[in-house]
Amino acid sequence: MILVTGATGSVGRHVVDGLLKEGQFVRAVTRNPATAGLPAAVEVVEGDLSAPEHLPLDGVTTAYLIAMGDNPYEVAQTLADNGVSTVVFLSTSEVLDDTDEQPGAIAARHAAFEDAIQRSGMLWTFLRPNEFAGNVLQWADQVKAGDVVRAPYGDAWSAPIHERDVAAAAVRALVDDRFHGAKLVLTGPEAMTHREQLGHIASVLGRKLEFEELPAAAVRERMARFAPVEIVDALLGRLAETVGKPTTVTSTVYHVTGRRPLTFREWVAEHVEDFR
Description:
With 276 residues, the chain is α/β, with parallel strands linked by helices. The protein contains 10 helices and 11 strands. It has helices at residues 12-21, 72-81, 105-120, 140-145, 163-175, 194-205, 216-223, 229-242, 252-257, 264-270, and strands at 2-4, 26-30, 43-46, 62-65, 86-90, 123-129, 148-151, 157-158, 183-186, 192-193, 210-213.
């Protein structure tokens, strides 16, 4: 039995679908099973990583884990103590190895989960994706309302990755022991700036869209009303760090899944209605 946490998320849903295609038995954890909308073949159960002692782990040998909850060491030890032998963890490419200080709160949170999993004695694979292509959905309302997207750091670089590619890599790591002990840095096939990402959206829509740079300080003040300051600073700090620094593209998706990674433009074409 494979346990999937975050099963209703943008990656988790594809992990569930991929495991079913592999003929695996899947137990999906969600806070609200009644609204999960997952396939009938999935065992959908209520659970929350903030309360790991209540996770439904009977019969589970393998788990797909996301960084939820504030007790990574308790989560990892609970899994190990209840017979889970293998974990595939959705981390982030921001995590740095061989350092006592991570570059921001997001990297620190994921690094703590990685450390907890390693210390637990379970077999593990860490997925470290670059920026998700789906992050541009934050612009959708502006695109629907007009021809200008206002945001900070238009010249920040990334290699945006399709969530289906992240999920495909997760599925292979969950069913194939070749990836035990691997830290897989996942990127899309092209490095581009946020301004160029907006250009792809405009092209697919057949419209002209303009990126208007907003001062980071103003954006920080607005975001801090709705999110923890340390997370806001980490998000903006990551963008600032990548201005003028093209992201290194990896071939990991191809080597793990055996197929080419999906392009950002393909992602936009699949989600075009979100911008109309």
